[in-house]
Structure formats: structure tokens, C-alpha cells
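Input C-alpha cells:
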């Protein structure tokens, strides 16, 4: 095991100092774009203005013949585009693919200072992160990068799920994990052809009525992803990194997309992928704490003072634990309010609150 004393030493001479804590930056939606599409360069500034994160995707959904064009397109976009306050992430190809070595070498050496996070698909265990951690450190040193590029794993193989805690703890570069339901379904041999969401066959049914055995028995669709999402949230949070819901593939079904995103938000996820521009607004709506909840949380915090003890507010019991729940809500709201003036006003934060 690596000594805890060495954990925060750069992994290559000349690489930047690893971060002791991964800062939370608004990342309610990670908007995917295909940098191999020549029209994209003109669209990215508009997408960045609406998104917390824009991500140049090099992996699945990019045609094999376009892999090099996607990598080169991303370099050009990063070098020539003002993204305003949006972060730039990329999803590189998987570690067993013929493209990954050039993906990492090119991106870190040419646009390493613009890249906030590298998303790594199909991560199976901590050994995958160790490999990328070392390589990125060597490349950062070569390129003279001053701030460490962070890593983000996609949880999309059965083995990755079995090792999720070790993946989260593998490096101080780990920023977060996204849940990848499509590859995960394939890896687990689940019998579904959808990308995320529930399934009409995965249900519970009420017992037959003994008085009326022919009466309709009510059914309700269940969430086949609950176990994995909850485990991912715990693994991330226990290691001081951030959990995200991944793709929702049925673009036309905005209602189910919103439901899936909200279930993830309520469980603790901080954002989701947007794989179509229409999903940017859905993620924004869901992952922005609701105004009434934030105002309520502020009120609980004001009335509880130092957060200890027990009080009743509007007939609801509040104690040290509910104070902490409220603090999560208020702190998330403050981060977003610093970015968006209308939100600051809606939540009722003063300039002093946000200082
Ligand atoms: C995402 O990459 C997924 O496989 O769902
Ligand atoms: Mg995938």
C-alpha cells in the first residue's frame, strides 16, 4: 500500500502539487459535444454559456473513422474558444483502445492548461486510475502544467461497481464518478436495451384480492439503478469526491429524464450528463436546489444558531442532524448563487452572505 505520507507528492518530477481537497464547482450538467463535427466549433460558445461543464467526447458515439478528427477538433476548440465560466472536460477512449495513449499525450501536452477534468470510461479498478495518474503526471511535467488535471471515472462495468470504493480512493486527482447505465447493463447482462431510466418489466404488483381474484392488480415500475447509484454516492462522498448521474437516452421523454435526474439529485448526485441540448435545462432545473427548500433551510439555520439542540419549527422537529441537512442545501445554493445573480436574489442571499 502506498504510504499516506506520499499520497500528496507529485507522481513525476515537475508535475503540479496534487490537491488536498477537490473543490466543488458547479457541474449540474456535463454537456457532451462531438468535436469531430466541424460545425461544433461555432456551437460550443453558445452551449458553454448555458452549461456548467462542456465535455468534448472522444469515446463511444464517435465513429472509429472520426477518432483522430475528434481529438484534433477538441484541441482546436480548446485553443480558440472563450468558454466564459464553463469548465472544459473531455471523455477519452478506454484504456484498452488503440487511441487512448495519443488521446492523453496530445490533450495534456497541447491543451492541459485548459482542461479541468479527464473522464475515463470503463474503469474496472484502482489499477486503471494508478496508470492514468502516473502518465498524466509525466505529461503535465513535460508540458509545464501548473494546476493538476483531475480525473473522473465512469462506473459502467460490473467489476468497476465491485471496486468502486477503491476507485474513488485511488488518487488525489479523483474528482468524481458518473454512473453509466448503458455499458453497465451490457456488462451485467441485464436484459434491457435502454440508456438509463426504468423499465416496464421491472415492477412490483399488489397481491390478488381474495374477494375479487379477477380485479386488476396495481403495478408500479421500480428503479433498477437504485442500488448502484446509492453505492456510488456513498463511495464518492466517503472519499470527498462527487457523484453524477450519466446519460438518459430517450431524448423525447423529457418527463422521465427529469424524474431520473431528480431521483439522482435526491440521493446525493451533484449533476448529470446532457447528451442533447434540450437536457441542459432539465439538469439545471433539477440540480439547482429549489427556492422554497433553500429559504426553509436558511430559516432552520438562523433559528438554530450554532446548530446544536432541538427546536420545533412549524411543527417539525429540527436537531443537529437536520441542521446539517440544511447546511448542505444552503451551501450548494450559495455556490450556484455566486454564479447566477437571479438565483442569489431568489434565494435571498445578500452580497455579504456570498462573500
Ligand atoms: C455511458 O457511457 C454509458 O455507458 O451509459
Ligand atoms: Mg459507456
Amino acid at each position: 500500500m502506498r504510504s499516506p505520507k506520499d499520497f500528496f507528492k507529485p507522481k513525476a518530477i515537475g508535475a503540479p502539487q496534487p490537491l488536498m481537497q477537490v473543490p466543488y464547482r458547479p457541474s449540474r450538467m456535463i454537456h457532451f459535444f462531438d468535436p469531430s463535427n466541424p460545425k461544433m466549433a461555432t456551437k460550443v460558445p453558445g452551449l458553454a454559456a448555458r452549461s456548467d461543464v462542456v465535455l468534448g467526447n472522444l469515446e463511444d458515439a464517435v465513429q472509429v473513422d472520426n477518432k483522430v478528427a475528434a481529438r484534433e477538433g477538441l484541441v482546436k476548440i480548446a485553443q480558440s474558444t472563450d468558454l466564459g465560466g464553463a469548465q472544459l472536460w473531455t471523455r477519452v477512449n478506454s484504456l484498452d483502445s488503440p487511441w487512448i495513449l495519443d488521446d492523453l499525450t496530445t490533450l495534456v501536452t497541447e491543451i492541459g492548461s485548459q482542461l479541468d477534468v479527464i473522464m475515463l470510461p470503463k474503469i474496472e479498478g484502482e489499477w486503471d486510475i494508478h496508470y492514468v495518474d502516473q502518465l498524466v503526471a509525466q505529461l503535465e511535467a513535460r508540458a509545464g502544467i501548473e494546476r493538476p488535471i483531475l480525473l473522473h471515472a465512469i462506473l459502467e462495468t460490473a467489476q468497476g461497481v465491485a471496486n468502486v470504493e477503491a476507485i474513488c480512493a485511488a488518487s488525489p486527482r479523483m474528482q468524481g464518478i458518473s454512473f453509466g447505465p448503458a455499458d453497465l447493463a451490457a456488462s451485467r447482462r441485464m436484459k434491457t436495451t435502454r440508456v438509463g431510466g426504468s423499465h416496464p418489466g421491472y415492477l412490483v404488483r399488489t397481491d390478488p384480492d381474495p374477494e375479487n381474484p379477477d380485479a386488476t392488480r396495481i403495478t408500479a415500475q421500480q428503479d433498477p439503478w437504485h442500488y448502484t447509484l446509492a453505492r456510488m454516492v456513498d463511495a464518492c462522498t466517503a472519499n470527498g469526491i462527487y457523484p453524477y448521474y450519466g446519460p438518459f437516452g430517450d431524448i423525447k421523454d423529457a418527463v422521465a429524464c427529469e424524474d431520473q435526474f431528480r431521483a439522482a439529485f435526491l440521493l446525493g448526485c451533484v449533476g448529470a450528463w446532457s447528451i442533447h441540448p434540450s437536457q441542459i435545462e432539465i439538469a439545471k432545473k433539477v440540480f439547482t436546489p429549489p427556492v422554497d427548500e433553500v429559504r426553509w433551510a436558511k430559516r432552520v439555520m438562523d433559528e438554530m444558531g450554532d446548530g446544536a439542540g432541538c427546536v420545533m419549527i412549524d411543527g417539525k422537529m429540527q436537531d443537529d442532524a437536520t441542521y446539517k441537512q440544511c447546511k448542505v442545501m444552503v451551501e450548494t445554493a450559495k455556490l450556484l448563487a455566486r454564479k447566477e445573480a437571479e438565483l442569489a436574489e431568489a434565494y435571498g442571499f445578500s452580497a455579504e452572505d456570498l462573500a
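DSSP finds 14 helices and twelve strands in the chain. Residues 320-339 form the longest helix (20 residues).
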